[in-house]
Write a structure and sequence with these properties.
Structural class: mainly alpha
Radius of gyration: 25 Å
Number of strands: 2
Number of helices: 30
Shape: globular
Number of domains: 3
Largest sheet: 2 strands, antiparallel
Distance between the termini: 48 Å
Helix content: over 70%
Strand order of the largest sheet: 1-2
Strand content: under 5%
Length: 646
Amino acid sequence: MAANTSGDAVSAEAAEKALEVEYGAARRALTGWTGDLVFWLGAGYVVFHLVVLNIHPIDPWVFRTFHICIGSVIGFAIYGARASEPRDSGVPWYDWAMMAASVAILAYITVNLDELLFRAGVLPTTWDLVVGASGTFMVLELTRRSAGLALPILACMFILYAFVGPWMPGVLHHNGISADVFFSYIYSMQGIHGITTDVSATYIILFIAFACFLNASKAGDFFNDLSIALVGWARGGPAKVAVVSGILFGTISGSAVGNVVASGMITIPMMRRVGYDRSTAAAIEATSSTGGQITPPIMGAGAFIMAEILGIPYTDIAVAAIIPTLLFYIACYVHCDLHARKNDLHGIPRDELPTILSVLRRGHMLVPIVLLIVLMLNGYSVFRAGSVGIIAAVVASWLSGRAERMGPRAVLDTLSLSAREAIQLMAICACAGIIVGVIALTGIGGRFSNMVLGIAGESRFLALVFAMLIALVLGMGMPTTAAYAVAASVIAPGLAQMGIPPLTAHLFIFYYAVISAITPPVALASFAAAGMANADPWKTSFIALKLGLATFIVPFMFVYGPELLFQGEWLDIAGVLISASFGVFLLASSTEGWYAAGRIGWPARAVLFVSALCLIVPGLVTDLIGLGGAILVYAYQRLLFRRAVA
């Protein structure tokens, strides 16, 4: 393809290094009997989950323990103890010991289930303490290896707080907890095996498998080709391809860095070819890929946790996310167009691009996603819809060419890959369960919410600012899922006390946890894209911040205008969508410094910025003010143009 002829192609090594941004240690390349063992264990791991979810349910505690313990066996096999460990080093003795300990913990809980249900966190035995402490340590270590140090360090701080509470002042004070009670509680259904692991063992592993099967059926290639055919020829076309592919990849991946690698391999070289500088090309890819986590129908893993916490259907969350997602990508698309106009950047010649007709001949690749959406909207469980989607992906591959057909070996390969891809999120959810458990055990969540409310007073806006900052700071050092889970446990109850609907409060926190992936000083998606483009990571981060500015504003707006969350009458929702879309267009014009037919100065940019905010805020009066500001700047532009011509 044209991207590969640019002389600036992204190498597989660069893509691998970009993925390492997400990991805390090296991923081993296992061979021989060890590789075979992990292969078959991974395939069986996913099949077991599918059977339990669709055919034969088992006790929730046993199921979640299996999810963590067997997942840990796979995790300690594939993740090295340090980043510098050679990929072909094999599995050392201490990892075999932790794998054996994981199996022993699973056996202990399975055999002693009835007694544990009675005494966990209340009347623990010595063995309960040993199993709980060992299991907690292994969750922390696996999280360190798979997701870095930030989340385990935060979890350790919470563990320490559970023991030093009697000596803490003010709102942090509690009566203290003994070690046996603490570890038996944390390693139970109230902590590590609680709601976060429940989501990991059900929704997350199911949709990771769905995404892997879609990719194996070459749906990812279809999405890229469709994006290129649709907009690759347009002004600044390759950048617009990144935006469109970000939307499409968002349906099969909840990982910003994963999206960057999958899409950026093609779009970054294409953008470089038509004249985009390295940092801008990387920033566009990072921003559009980050938006994939808020794109229905498969959003980031945090959205599944949200559904469980709120006790509402996942489809309600997906529907509420539609308009904010549209606004995000409209803003990205407009930024790309205005940047191309400013710098006279063109698209790829049409004769070098696939035609839409040729791409649509593979339109059957959309069937699994369409089927998934239709089944969920018609009341089928997410588990059943996702499982049918997996089968549909295999069938779709058989409707493609011979090379794309998935035979038995390809199915097994994809099942095993799904297990390996699920380990990181499994560890993150289990580790987040430690923090959630400590918050519940010590009561710090309620006291912290009250403290925030006390500081904010009666100001809803100030409370929202606190919530935004907490979600952003947590997200800078942790994956989105953990950042959302922790922030929601601490902040969401306080926002609800201020009269903010629970779904709105949780979506507000979730959006800022997502956008932290492009927020300096630690912007994982931006750094990954910069590594692939060989660009300055800081410059990339700040450009991405500008491109994603709409996402920093829209959450505040949907708190004050529920129509942005698809709530209200259809006419009102349509009006809000139109005005907010024009608002994000003006926002992009303001930050890019280009409006209508040419460049604009800082005074005009300031007027457009205020006008954009007025249009994004639902309401007739604000819409009229915003429209008036846009007309005023346009009239001023025309006046200057006439004077220049005269």
